[in-house]
Amino acid sequence: MKKIFYILSLCLLLSVACEKSNPNDENPVEVPTSLTYVATTIADHDAVIVRASDFESGAPVVVVLAEDLKLSTRSAEKVDINFKAAEHCLIGGYVLCVIEAASGDDISFLSNLKSEFPYAPKFYLLSYRNGLAYTAAMQMPDAFAAYACVSGAIDVETYKANSFTKPVSFVHVHATENPVCKWEGVENKTVSVPLSVGAIVAINECLTFKTSEVLPREGKGRVTCTRYTDALSGCDVMLYSVESANSGWCDEEFEVYNQIWNFLKTH
Amino acid sequence: MKKFIILLAALFVCHQASAGSLKTETFEDQGLTRSYYLYIPNDLPAGAPLVFILHGYGGSANAYVNNSSLTFKQLAEEYKVALCYPQATTDPRPNTGWNVYYPWQIDKMKVDDCEFICNLAKHLHTKYNLSAKNTFLTGMSNGGEMCYLMAYRKPKEFAAIASMAGLTLVEMAKRHNYESPIAFMEVHGTGDMTSRWEGDPTNQYGWGAYLAVPVAVGAVAAGNKCMYQETTELPQIKNRVIFHRYYGSPSGKEVHFYEVRNGGHNWATDSFDSCRVIMEFFKQNMTK
To answer: How far apart are the C-alpha atoms of B221 and B236, rounded to whole Å?
Structure first.
């Protein structure tokens, strides 16, 4: 009986010892747990800078141009940037700079953005519910490492007045039944989404394309990713077509932030 | 019996009356004697449009003139246009073919077929009093490649261009840009195993590297700055035919793209009346 007791005690001690020697416990992974929001003004545009609380100054910057962000309070505590994308910068390890801007705005101020983030190694530009990423791709193709557009398209007047002159890496996410910024274009307002993307495919001299299905969230419609590749310029283009009527981020349909960031970070 | 012979003779006369004249002619260009067929419909008015029809690789103008599934001659009577079927020269392979920068043609084939077609057009405008501003081009396969090359190089010489199963070779895209808008049409089978829908960026199949067909058509639409699109499906006869219309360009020049689902390397006449669709597209782009 005593022997059995000793053996059991020994086993218990060994198991505790093994638990204590778990390397994860000795060196726990530092996961940032919170975000800091700083309300500011960039070239007369209301802006919010979002970063992890343990932010590293060498992180890349994703600039988001969007309107109706409720930035008017100018109070860091009360700022409501109105979308979940902010939380993704924790995962991606980048700084998010959301600037209030609308279709047709003069975006030349973006060329001075680097002075706001002197230690940032790279800048990416995303336009949300407007086509300013396309405007920037036409007017300042060298300013950003890659460009993205979600639920926006080229503004017709801007397209009449400007052309794509240099290749750019570009990703576009759009719902095929978007009732606001329509897939097929809106006369005198926005260019069709495939034609917007096609204009960049043409200037990039992409030769071919590959289509794949992206895993949608449960019960949601099909999400198709068309990747335009083999570009003579080396700049590729991606189009996510989402079978829904979402005119926003389409994050209800699939892991949109991951997909966009996975594209941006490779450029 | 006599009545039967008279009836036959009457039918023959009627047929002759409705058919225009088909001529074989030659034209000196770039030091070569080039041949072509010219079809002039009856009662063709002065200043009538001129349509060039280009054959495919290894093919001949003669085969196209006599191809009963190509209804261009009947349509020429209806639309009152003259038709020209030029003959390509023999390339270094050696096969009859238009110089569109296939790998074996580059630096070896001296003839400039874009120049030839344009020079021949000017000759015919003068000789037959045909319209210089209403000159059109269509062609299949190698002839379709000529359509893309002409859209790059000579967009102002044609009121509209229609390619059947044509391709944009990478060599074209490297050498040229779309400088001027052009009314353009492409008909292409998604199951075309010769001129592949998905392109051949690495020249796996030997024609030279070429763009995926939707990318090539998109490049023309981008060159035109088309801004809007409509997608409709034609009434189904054999293969499904999806029609993509790209429009709203500042010049008004549209791009029409007929995607023939599972269609092969042909004029797709079994799936829709492609010859009439081409003529109708040309008619839409006629200038007064």
So the answer is: 26
| B170 contact A CB<8A | yes
pLDDT tens sequence across A189-210: 999 999 999 999 999 999 999 9
Tell me whether residue A186 is in a domain: yes
> Closest by alpha carbon to A99, among A63, A142, A141, A137?
A63
For chain A, how many structural domains are there in total? 1
Taking only the tens place, the pLDDT of each residue in B143-195 is 999 999 999 999 999 999 999 999 999 999 999 999 999 999 999 999 999 99
Instruction: Quote ipTM for the complex.
Output: 0.88
CATH number for the domain harbouring residue A210: 3.40.50.1820
Q: Is B230 on the interface with A (CB under 8 A)?
A: yes
pTM of the model: 0.88
Residue numbers of the domain that contains A213: 29-264
Is residue A17, in this structure, part of any structural domain at all? no
Q: Who contacts B17 (Cβ-Cβ below 8 Å, separation ≥6)?
A: B42
Q: Which of residues 149-208 of A touch B (CB under 8 A)?
A: 154, 156, 159-160, 163, 184-187, 191-192, 194-195, 198-199, 201-203, 205-208
CA A53, CA A46: separation in Å to the nearest integer? 22
